[in-house]
């Protein structure tokens, strides 16, 4: 017979394990050059920019690679679905990504 307190202990333990294995969202600007990441959220972006990115096929869940970071606040080049896209640094800062293990 399993007591209710034991079930709660088991449930809270498995929940904490799941939370500890979930990847943490970071800004795309903080990822190393050339690393592949998965786009987590487009929500912080301005609606018109969000629309433009989704029209190009850059959606939540897309795989992105940081290709080039220009000096002195210039544009950032990302690769998604075989196409290169240049974005401003303040726009790239708002993109939330999680690392992929490929």
From TrEMBL:
Pfam families: FeoA. The keyword Iron applies. Keywords: Iron. InterPro entries: Fe-transptr_FeoA-like, FeoA, FeoA_core_dom, Transcriptional_repressor_C. It comes from the Bacteria. The keyword Iron applies. Residues 26-99 form the Ferrous iron transporter FeoA-like domain. SMART domains: FeoA. This is Ferrous iron transport protein A.
